[in-house]
Amino acid sequence: MNETGQLHGSCLCGGVAYRADLPVSHASHCYCTMCQKQHGAAAGSYANVAAAGYVVERGADLITEYASSSHARRGFCKVCGSTLFWRSTQAPDRIAITLGTLEPEYDGPVQRELHTDTKPAWLPHR
Ligand SMILES: [Zn+2]
Ligand SMILES: [Zn+2]
């Protein structure tokens, strides 16, 4: 991990920038069909951090939150569509930030694969 004790990230258009305090409790690849739809990809990849340490440094007004279920909120940039976070109203002290928006590249372990029953068959086979 970096020396600052923080993760930094931004969206594709650069309008949104954020930081989050370490530590990461766990990171995951989630293959649920909602993550596949929202990310347009095989999985949503996230690092779970404390909500209190998550700070939007730029572009808070560009973040739209979509309620994908009764408790889940998915934040994205309304300009470029980058997915930024997943959070649950049932666990407001935590937030899951997207690994793909982190700069530099996330260098921690990914401990969990979720909803592997809907993991797409079109992923490359190892
Ligand atoms: Zn953007
Ligand atoms: Zn998911």
Helical region count? 1
What is the tally of beta strands?
10
Structural class: mainly beta
Largest sheet: 7 strands, mixed
CATH architecture annotation name: Beta Complex
Helix content: under 10%
Quick one: CATH class?
A: Mainly Beta
Strand content: 35-45%
Q: Mind telling me the C-alpha Rg?
A: 14 Å
Distance between the termini: 27 Å
Question: In sequence order, what are the helices and strands, one letter per element?
Answer: EEEHEEEEEEE
Strand arrangement, major sheet: 6-7-8-9-4-3-10
- The rough form would be described as globular
- Overall mean pLDDT stands at 96
The small molecules bound here are: zinc ion
Counting structural domains, the number is 1
The CATH topology turns out to be Metal Binding Protein, Guanine Nucleotide Exchange Factor, Chain A
Low-confidence spans: pLDDT under 50, at least 5 residues? none
What do these coordinates show?
It contains one helix and ten strands; from the N terminus they run E-E-E-H-E-E-E-E-E-E-E. With 126 residues, the chain is mostly beta strands. The chain has a single domain, classed as Metal Binding Protein, Guanine Nucleotide Exchange Factor, Chain A. Strands 6-7-8-9-4-3-10 form a seven-stranded mixed beta sheet. Strands 1-2-5 form a three-stranded antiparallel beta sheet, with no helix packed on it. The longest helix has 7 residues, at 33-39. It is globular and about 40 Å long. Bound molecules: zinc ion (2 copies). One zinc ion is lined by residues 30, 32, 34-35, 44, 115.
